Structure formats: C-alpha cells, structure tokens
Batch of 2 targets.
Target 1
Amino acid sequence: MKSFKSYQYRRIILENGDLASGDYDFDDITIRTHEGYLNDAFDKEDGHVLPAVETHDGNHVEHWKNGVLHNLNGPAVVDNLDDYEEWWENGHQILHKEA
C-alpha cells in the first residue's frame, strides 16, 4: 500500500471547509485526525493507542503525531504486504527495514 508520507505537515480540509477531526472509515482503511492533521488516537476502553492510518485487514499501519510520522515505541510505518518497516521520530526517518 502507498504510504501517506506526502501528508506530513499538511492539514486535511473537508469539502465543507472544516478541518478533519475524528475517525474516517473508508472501504478498506481507517484514518484518524485531530485538528486537520493525521494523528494517533487513544482508545479509552482498552487503553491502546490507535494508529492514525490502518487498513482493515491490518496489513498496513502508520503512527502519526500532530501531522508527522512518529513512534518512539517501534516502527511508525509497518507494511506486511510489501514487507517493510520504517522508524520515524517527529517527522524524520530514522530507519527503513525491508525483509
């Protein structure tokens, strides 16, 4: 799957002009935003972090913080179909690993 890297530092604006804020479900993907930026969410029920981008089959996951790729606890991007992982901190790529 194609990464959402081109959305770094960019706000997502809805057709009505509002900033995207919340969860958006499409046919095969869920996207989470806050104040227009891709952003991980926190599931209050089970205490887990929900990635900003995830396919419904779980094969592609991206962690974002305030509009940049970011994850201090593991890879920010995991793609099981194309078999790679990327580590990012505050929008800067630290490592790219292909199997």
Target 2
Amino acid sequence: MFFRDKQVLVIGGTGTIGRRIVQSVLIENPRMIKVLSRDEYKQYQMQHEMENKDNLRFMIGDVRDYDRLVAAMQDIDYVFHLASMKHVSLCEANPFEAVQSNVQGTNNVIKAALAQNVKKVVFTSTDKAIAPTNAYGATKLIAERLFASVEQSGKKGTTVFSCVRFGNVMGSRGSVIPLFKEQIEKNKRVQITDREMTRFMMTLSQAANLTIQALKEAKGGEIFVLKMPVVKLADLVTILIEETCKKLKIAKDAVTVDIVGSRSGEKMYEELMTEDESKQAFELSDMYMIPGKFSNVNKYKNAKKAIVDTYSSQLQQPITLEQLRALLIKEGLV
C-alpha cells in the first residue's frame, strides 16, 4: 500500500473532499495523518466521527501562516493542499482576501514543503483557472503557476510538486445541488442562471480517489486534468424537482423555475484544458496529464498523446437525464 507507515498532511482536511481523502488514506494504515484547517468546530465534529483514531491528529492553522505550515510539515512524507477560498461571489467581493489565501497561502505551502523536505505535494485546482473571468479563477491560475515555477527553477530539494484540476463536485459544501433542494423544499421556487449552461461534475468519491491517484502518479510539475462527465443545468434542475417533489409528495408543477441570468464572472460553460495545453498533454485511463518541464513521459503506464482540442463543457456531450438521475441516486443526493 502506498501510504502504509507514511505520514500525510491534509491541508483543508475538514472540507468535503478533504474528509473523503482522509478516510481513504486511513484504509492504507499510514503512520500518521495530520488534518490542518482553521475551522475549530469542524475539526471537533470530524474527530468524534472518526472515533479519535490514534493515527489521526488535528491542527488549527491557516495557509496564511508560514510558521504554522512549517510545524505541520515536520516529518511529513506527502501533502494534499486543498485549502482555499472557493466561492466565486465571495472572492469577487473580497479579491485581496482571495489572493492572501489562494496565492500567498499556496506560496507558503511550497516554501514550507521545501524547508521540511516533503516527498510530494499535490494542489487541487479548478476548471475556473482556464481563461479566468473571475477573481477566484485568477487566483487558482496563479497558484498553478507557482507550483510549475518550482520545478522550472530547479530549486534544490527532492520535493515533487504537481496540480490536479477538476470541476464541480456533486454535493460538496456550497454546490448547487443542496442549494436547489433547499429552494424547492422551502420556497417551491428554483433560481437558475440559464437552462443551457453546462458544467463538469463528478462525484465526491471520484474527486477524492483521482486526487489520491494523481499524487501517486506525480513525477514533478505535471497538471493532472481529471476526466469528468458534463451536466446540463436544465437536466439537473429537472431531476431535483422531480425527486424532491416525489419525496415531499407534492406536484412538480407546483415548483416555479426562475431564470435570473449569469452572475458577475460566471461563464455559460467551463474549460478543463486549453487547446495549447492539449498539444503537450498525454491521456491516461482516468485523466489527462500535462507534463512539467522535467517530466519523463515514459514513466507513465499506458500514456498516449491526447487529441488536440479544447476540453470544454460546451464541446462535450452531456450525460443523459437518466444517467444523471442514476448518479445522483447512487451518491444519495436525491
């Protein structure tokens, strides 16, 4: 097992994906997992839910605090960097706060990992980092560049830095699924931006498992782009109305759908990989890999050249209504 007897740090480990990563890594019997986050209450909840495991430690801290990161990374082998400001509207309203968390915080993670000779660090990025139209996407793009620059600068040390890029995670904190369900239950009214809007979406299990896989595969400087199904917003709303109304025993016609238009910085579709990136990219079984400057593609099993094209939710075929329904039911989201 990859993590057996290893020491792992999950920064932002009390978040939705962080918790699932912690649960998955625990199965492999690591010597220690440290969970670093700034939310005391969530740490308290998680500690009791995981039954105070002997090889699980919780640390209050913030990526803005370099000294705390250095302390957290002492004797650590692998780091998952998941912490960031994530909500588009809040980052738009507080751009400098987003810079401090997502840019300065990521730079602190890099410096601390180098100082403590961590073996590997993987950073979770977003489709919104491609041709960003909002502050959130811009900060994540710069964070990706920070990770790439470490490998390109040839800094001394053995730490491997890589990024993993994905879209929306179904049911995660702040995602549209719980929001839409709440609107249906409380107001019998759903507010959506546009019926034709498309998004890359994946389940929580897929996001966590593929992030772990990316860390295992990382050789240095890569961006791993996870393959994700495309979902049409109109289809998602249709299923949530049908299933929620069935549960509440009300007629689905009683629910009104309001089209409110796009918010500031919001796109009709998202991109996970540009055409220029695809020219360099290789396709693996569950993801694409954009190599770093020093990557040796021959080290990747069954890697083949990717098709040159923009990997966009506008150009991909959305999954069918029934495929989406089955996915939501399987994940317990409806």
